[in-house]
Write a structure and sequence with these properties.
- The structure is a single chain.
- Helix content is 53%, strand content 12%.
- The chain has six helices and two strands, in the order αααββααα.
- It has helices at 4-13, 18-27, 30-38, 61-76, 78-82, 94-102; strands at 42-49, 55-59.
- The two termini are 25 Å apart.
- Mean pLDDT is 76; it is low at 86-91 and 105-111.
Length: 111
C-alpha cells in the first residue's frame, strides 16, 4: 500500500522530466522505496547497489499510470489532496485500482 506521503510525492512528480523522477525515487526513504518495489511501481536495475548500499530503482509503466490516476483524484477533489497525509485511511491503494482496471501489468520498466 502506498502511504499518503508517497502518494503525494508521486502526484507531485507527474509531468516532471524522467531524470528528475528517477533522482527523486533514488532519494526516497527505504520504506518508500520498498513500497514502490512491492507495488510493482519500480524495479531494481543495474548490477546491484550504489556505493552507499541503496538499490538503484527505475519506475515502471504502472507507476506512470498511478501518477495519472492520482492526478485525476486531485483534480476531482483538490482539497482532499491537502489532507492525504492527515487522513491515511481516506486514500485507497491507487496501484491496485489501476491494476484491477487494466489487468496485471508487467514489471518491465518504461523507456
Amino acid at each position: 500500500m502506498l502511504t499518503p506521503d508517497l502518494a503525494t510525492t508521486l502526484t507531485n512528480l507527474r509531468g516532471a522530466p524522467r531524470d528528475v523522477m528517477g533522482a527523486v525515487v533514488q532519494l526516497l526513504p527505504l520504506g518508500s522505496r520498498a513500497a514502490l518495489l512491492t507495488a510493482k511501481l519500480a524495479i531494481q536495475v543495474g548490477s546491484g547497489t550504489e556505493e552507499n548500499g541503496d538499490l538503484t530503482l527505475k519506475l515502471t509503466p504502472l507507476a506512470y499510470e498511478v501518477m495519472e490516476h492520482l492526478a485525476r483524484q486531485v483534480s476531482a477533489d483538490p482539497h482532499n489532496f491537502d489532507d492525504w497525509t492527515e487522513r491515511e485511511d481516506a486514500l485507497s491503494n491507487p496501484a491496485e485500482q489501476v491494476e484491477s482496471k487494466h489487468g496485471a501489468t508487467s514489471p518491465k520498466a518504461a523507456e
